[in-house]
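Methods — Computational structure assignment.
A single polypeptide chain was analysed. Its primary sequence is given first, followed by the predicted tertiary structure written as C-alpha cells.
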Amino acid sequence: MRGGYDAGDEYAFYKDLKDILAGAHRDIFIVDNYLNTEFFDLYVAPIRAGVSLRILTDQVRGNLESVAKKYATSLSVELRSSSHVHDRLIFVDQRYWTVGQSIKDAAKKKPTYMVELSAALVPAVRKIYEDLWSKAAVVAKS
C-alpha cells in the first residue's frame, strides 16, 4: 500500500482500499460523510460473504439509501446517519486507517493519504465511533 496519493492517483487509492476491504475476515466499519452509490459498486461488491459491513455517514445523499437497502437484502450491511461525524476512518477487523479525503473523491483532484494507525490506538478510537454509531439513525439494515 502506498499510503500517499498524488492528485490523479485515483486508481492507486481505489486498488489499495479495495484490497484492504476484500481482506476483511469479520467486520468492516467505515466512517465517511460524503459517500455515494459508487461506493457500493467499487468497494462493497468485492467484500467476502459473511463479513459484517457498517457505514456511518453525516447525510444520506442521492440514491445512497435505496442502494444500501438493495445491498442489505443479500449482504450484511447497515447504514446509519449522524450529524456528529466528520472524520474519515476505516476499521477492518482489528486494524484502523485514517483517510485525508472522502473515499468518493480521494486523489481525484487533490493529493490525499490513507494511513494505518497503531494497533494500540484502535480500542480508544473505535470506542468513540462505536458510541456515535449506537446513537445514529438507522437508514438501511440487513
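Note: The mean pLDDT is 89.
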